[in-house]
Amino acid sequence: MAAALGFGHLTAGVVSPASSPFLAVGDVVIRFSPQFLTEFAKATFGVADKPVLLAGMAVVITAVAAVAGLVSRRRPGPGLGVVAVLGMLGLAAVVVAPVFTARDLLAPIVALMVGLVTFAGLHALARRAHPTVTDAGAGGRAEAEAGVGSSRRALLIGCSAAVAVAALGAGLGGLVLAGVAEARQRVTDQLARLRPVTARAPAIPAGAAFPELGTPSFLTPNSQFYRIDVALRVPAQRAQDWSMPIHGMVDNPFTLTFDDLLARPLVERTITMTCVSNPVGGQLISTANFVGVELRELLLEAGVRPGADQIYSTSIDGWYTGTPTEVLLEPGRGALLAIGMNGEALPPEHGFPVRMVVPGLYGYVSATKWIVDMEATTFAAKTGYWLERGWAQQAPIKTQSRIDRPRGFETVPAGRVVVAGIAWSQPTGIDTVEVRMDGGPWQAAELATEVSGHTWRMWRTAFDLAPGSHTVQTRATDGTGVTQTARRADPIPDGASGWPATIFTTS
User: Fold this and answer.
1) Which of 8, 197, 238, 505 has its CA 20 to 30 A from that of 95?
2) CB atoms < 10 A from the CB of 88, how many?
3) Distance of CA 86 to the CA centre of its chain
4) For 104-158, what is each residue's pLDDT tens digit?
5) Do 337 and 354 meet the contact criterion of CB atoms below 8 Å apart?
6) Exposure string (b/e) for 373-410, b if CB count within 10 Å is 16 or more?
7) Are 304 and 250 in contact (CB under 8 A)?
8) Considering Cα of 178, then 179, then 181, then 184, what sign does the dihedral take?
9) Residue 278: CA atoms inside 13 Å, Cβ hemisphere, count?
10) How far, in Å, CA of 205 to CA of 501, rounded?
């Protein structure tokens, strides 16, 4: 099984990275997992949900392979059958992938053939290395007693080790050919092509964050920016190969290339992005300076027709969603087709070469990464990926806040205790943040300098506390005067709500 997976992955890296049988099966698991299981994985493992899934698959496959080997000690039929069944499952997973092409068949076929041939060869060698009376009568036993069996067992161990090394090397080779390393090189090559930005975002004021008190830095480094998507393999696409049609219910359909984007005015905007799966007080929120082209101008140029209430976008990996047209056409909303992030080209895991960024909407309806198609249509005609799974059609970001200091169950010195955190309500911004200790009266927190309504805002305050256990709560009010609700709600279907609370101890 290791040989099958390794050489299948290597072949996929050469021919079509999306056709790796191992990753294709993982994609099927993601696409068809029940909603409760998907949310459990995101809530429990966060951004590590994909490695956990792949590790779990590896454990299951290893266990199945071990059992198949044990029941195949006398005859190869059971093992060959298991290899064949798993190989056909991998082939089926590749065929049902949203971006399937004929060349994608090669990797699962190679995996299947390598698995069958390797098992048959090692099994035959094992039978010769361990002769029995049934296999060879008394002569076989005598041969084993003479030491021939021992030398054959040594040969079997050596061949098995060679297969393991070859499988590992093939798998690593597939990663090198199809993985992030290649995509990052493409990003490096692309940086030289980015021309100066027409409109820079205002500089971040010195008082915009309190990192010394435990809040995040105002801009999230690319390596720390949260990532939630359904792609097990980061798509690798060269910028010069990228194109995207804008079509459907428009008067002037046209197709963009990456050079077309570079030829247009590039703007930079500081935008906070929030995942709808973020629980109350969660970490699935980050801020970056994004560089790109005004999406509103592109849609106006295309001439979106009345009645087209959604812009349906599709990723290169087949993921799809619908964004309300009225939001994208809203003056001042600042939606982008982004090509840069924090002074660099988009990192591969964040959508290189082009992605959507729409302030004020949760990402599942607005933030298509690796975007390759944009269609003006209606919500009645097409349904997005997460809408099919029970999420809401409209997804405005809710007013929320978070406590970053003290951390949960932390012990701090008694006396003057500083409490700090963040709040957000894109695109209206945060007007006030209130904090209370141990159910007492609310007190206004000091707010950091506001950058814009499209970004988070840091806050801090302090309490004089005696030794003991304490519970701190916070709530925010947005720029329109609406205060964060105390009503607890799970992320499904349109985002979590409630007042965050942190329990800590002073001593």
Assistant:
1) 238
2) 13
3) 26
4) 889 889 999 999 999 998 888 888 776 654 444 444 455 545 555 566 667 667 7
5) yes
6) bbbbbebeeebbbbbebebbbebbbbbbbbbbbbeeee
7) yes
8) positive
9) 26
10) 29
